Amino acid sequence: IPVDPFDLVVFGGTGDLAQRKILPALFRRFCTGHIPDSARIIGAARSDMTLDAYRAFCAKAIKTYGGTRSCEDGTVQEFLSRLDYVPLDAMGETGWPELVHKLEGCAAGRVTVFYFSVGPRLFGPLAERLRHHGMAGPDTRIVVEKPFGHDLESAQALNATLARHFAEGQIYRIDHYLGKETVQNLMAVRFGNMLFEPLWNSQYVDHIQITVAETVGVDGREEYYDRAGAMRDMIQNHLMQLLCLIAMEPPAKFDPDAVRDEKLKVIRALDAVLPHHIVRGQFEACLDPDHPHPSYRGSVGEPRSTTESYIALRTHLSNWRWAGTPFYLRTGKRLKARSSVINVMFKDAPHSIFGEEAGRHANLLSIRLQPNEGITLKVTIKEPGPGGMRLVDVPLDMTFAEALGPDGGDPPDAYERLITDVIRGNQTLFMRGDEVEAAWAWTDPIIAGWEARGDAPKPYPSGSAGPTDADLLMRRDGREWRGIN
Ligand code: BG6
Predict the structure, then answer these.
(1) Using one digit for the tens of pLDDT, what is the confidence trace for 35-50?
(2) Mean predicted lDDT score pLDDT of the chain
(3) Among 75, 135, 166, 381, which is least packed by CB within 10 angstroms?
(4) Which atom of ligand 1 is nearest to the CA of 146?
(5) pLDDT category of residue 278 using cuts at 50, 70 and 90
(6) Atom of ligand 1 nearest to the CA of 175
(7) Is residue 215 within 8 Å of residue 485, measured between CB atoms?
(8) In this entry, which stretches build a coiled coil (predicted)?
(9) ipTM reported for the complex, 2 dp
């Protein structure tokens, strides 16, 4: 279903995110016929570019990052003809009258979206200028990228600044993990099936593991990353969102506030993390002559940096459903494989009628978010053959690409889904201000704890599964990581 006519202004329209994600996502939506003819996309940035130069920039972005759905030249040209560009200074006055002029004359009630694809220090000035120039009307929506603050205090300040000019219902805080098809599938699996929900609690679940492993390093984002580290860059937002979707109570309906209220309750129920339940790491240089790269410290040019490129931790939820069930989270860069997976490990059967020699067998539900999106349920069956009642674990395996055909295997990019939702006015997959603050309120003391203790991250070889201490964290509990290790 095409969205209503809209005007979308991308502040930071020549930036990295616009190039890699926003413009290719809009183009792909255009190819699928979801963008109405009268829609307008206006890039705004400091560069004093002509419109032709901006269109050439976008054409290159689409070619490089458009993915498998790139269309023929004619379609690209048609898309480019929808684009406009305004050189604009977010902190000054240059360009604002031109932008006002371009947006004038649109019918009242037309959706106008301002995408803040810029650093957080510009959020306030942009919001103020939009208000000052009369562009912050009731039909206006703003999209705000992460990082949403550096800690609780800065997140509260950002929320307060935005709230001076926009209502919460107009603010779309993006966490692109929520736009991933498979992440939304977590809700479908949990709340669309009768099978899992009755077992989804501490009585039947032994523990839950969430892994987001990456093979990439921090190239091109060194300055930001060395201030953030894996805790702020990944745990506080993406892994926290996955944890919420896995642990939350069923909302009464799939509606923005019903879903976000339940997620907020999860974050607020998280226990403080004990120091011996955290492992931080930093990757070492890779000496492989085919793929050499420097160590973390070498990459960021800070020989004494104590920022973590890897973190593993164990936490708990103090609530009725999950009391006593550990949640293990881990994420890191330059690991051996790119793999995002959630493992729900069920408890052993309470009594084995097959005797001790049949061994221990527990069900495992693995939800693969990327790559090879799908679900595997490990079940126990009899080993075929005449050898008596010997048990063996086998996978019931489903990959979305096979089960759903080519369309299921090539789902829309997270940004396609999220931008469409902004235009439709659906905030379900966006973070509410109180959610972001609650996430920082949990994260801040953990970071303050290791800073006060002066804990240094453990080195780990590039291309490994992370520091060996992360395995110990599990082994101490008689458990092991699944997925990459
Ligand atoms: C971003 C982080 O939010 O997510 C990056 O800032 C990380 O450090 C990226 O690499 C991972 O996203 P994806 O979609 O590649 O899993």
Answers:
(1) 888 899 999 999 999 9
(2) 92
(3) 381
(4) 3
(5) very high
(6) 3
(7) no
(8) none
(9) 0.99
Q: Cβ(308) to ligand 1 under 6 A?
A: no
Same-fold call for 6-145 versus 178-413+431-475? no
Which fold does the domain 178-413+431-475 belong to in CATH?
Dihydrodipicolinate Reductase; domain 2 (3.30.360)
Torsion of CA 139, 144, 150, 153, to 10 degrees: 0
Residues with catalytic function: 238
Question: What is the average pLDDT across 354-359?
Answer: 82
Q: What is the CATH number of domain 6-145?
A: 3.40.50.720
* 3-state SS class at 335: strand
- Whole-model pTM? 0.94
Nearest atom, ligand 1, residue 180 CA? 14
Q: Is 233 in the pocket of ligand 1 (CB under 6 A)?
A: yes
**CB 421 near ligand 1, within 6 Å:** no
Q: Single out the residue of 40, 158, 153 nearest to residue 444, CA to CA.
A: 153
* Mode of pairing for the β-strands spanning 310-315 and 111-116: unpaired
Spatial distance between the Cα atoms of 337 and 329, rounded to a whole number of angstroms = 16
Over residues 121-149, mean pLDDT: 91
Residue ranges per structural domain of the chain: 6-145, 178-413+431-475
